Amino acid sequence: MKRLFEKHSIAILLFPYILLFSLFIIIPVIAAIFLSFTDFNTLEIPAFQGIDNYIRLFTNDDVFMQHVVPNTIIYAITVGVGGYILSFFLAWTLSQLTKVPRMILAVIIYSPSLTGGVLLSTVWRVVFNGDKSGYLNYFLLQLGIIEQPVLWLQSDKYLLIIMIIVTLWSSMGIGFLAILAGIMNVNEELYEAARIDGVKNRFQEVIHVTIPAAKPQLLFGAVMSIVNTFSASGVGVALSGTNPTPNYAGQLIVTHIEDYGFIRYEMGYAAAVSVILLIIIQMASVGANKLFGSKDE
C-alpha cells in the first residue's frame, strides 16, 4: 500500500477534487449541452430536435434580442467593468491608510457582499417603495422635486438603474479582498527602484509598478467580477417581485433562463440559453486572462 501510494500519490490526492469537479461542473455542463438540442418539459423524455432551440433564440425570441441582450450588455459594462474599476480604486485607497482604519473600512466595504441578498427585500425595497412611505419618494416629495410618488421598482425607466446601484453596493466581495491583498503585498523596493528610474507621482506608480506586480490578484478579481456579473439574476426579480420583470426592464440572461426553465418548464430552450451564457463567460474570461495573465502562460 505504501509503495502504491508513493507511486500514485498525486492521482490519489487529486481524486476527491476531480470527483467533485466532475459531479458538479463537467457532468452538468455536458447535460446542459445535450438538453439544448432537445424539447424537454421535465416530465417527458427529452425529444431530440437539432438546433431548433438556437434558431428560435436568435430569430424568434423578440424578448431575448430586444430586451435581454441590451439589458445584459448595459448591466455587464456598468457593474462588471465599473465595479471592477471601483474595486481597484477602493483597494488602492485603503492600501494608503494605516492598519486599523484600513481594517475597519475593509470590513465595512466587504460586508454588503455577505448580506446583499438578505437586505434586498428589506432595506432597498423600503428605500424605493412606490408609495409615500418609501424613503426616496418621501425625500423627493419633501423637497418638492416630485408631486406624486413614483413606482420606482415597477418602472421600465428606473428598474435597471436601481439594479445597477444595488449590485454595485454589494459587489465588493472576494475579488475586492484579493485586489487589496495583491496591492498590499507589492514589494516596497519596486517603488524605490521606480522612483530612481524616473517615476514621479502616485499615478505613474500605479501604472508601472502596482498593476504589473499585482497581476495575479487582478486577474482573479476580474474573473470573479465576470462570473458574478453574468450570473446575476435575483436582483431584478427580488426588487420588482416578478419574473419576468415589469416590461422586461430588468430581464437579464440568467433571469431569462429561470423564466423558461422554472416557470414555463421549457428546459431544452433554457439549456440553449445557458450554453450561450457559458460561451459568453468563457470569452470574457479569456479576454481577462490575456489582459492580466502572464505572457508565459
Description:
This protein is mainly alpha-helical and 297 residues long. The chain has a single domain (63-292), classed as MetI-like fold (Orthogonal Bundle). 73% of the residues lie in helices and 1% in strands. It has 14 helices and 2 strands, in the order H-H-E-E-H-H-H-H-H-H-H-H-H-H-H-H. It has helices at residues 2-7, 9-35, 52-59, 62-95, 99-127, 135-143, 159-169, 174-184, 188-196, 202-213, 215-230, 234-240, 253-263, 267-292; strands at 38-39, 47-48. The protein has a two-stranded antiparallel sheet. Strand 1 (38-39) and strand 2 (47-48) form a beta hairpin. Helix 5 (99-127) packs across helix 12 (234-240) and helix 8 (174-184) packs antiparallel against helix 11. The radius of gyration is 23 Å and the shape is globular.
Question: Which descriptors apply to this entry?
Answer:
297 residues; MetI-like fold; two-stranded antiparallel ribbon; 14 helices
Q: What would the average pLDDT be, to the nearest integer?
A: 86
How would a crystallographer describe the biggest sheet?
2 strands, antiparallel
The H/E string reads HHEEHHHHHHHHHHHH
Structural class: mainly alpha
- How does the overall form come out from the CA principal axes? globular
Q: Approximately how much beta-strand content do the residues carry? A: under 5%
Low-confidence stretches: none
DSSP helical segment count: 14
CATH topology: MetI-like fold
Sheet with most strands: strand arrangement? 1-2
Helix content: over 70%
CATH level 1 name: Mainly Alpha
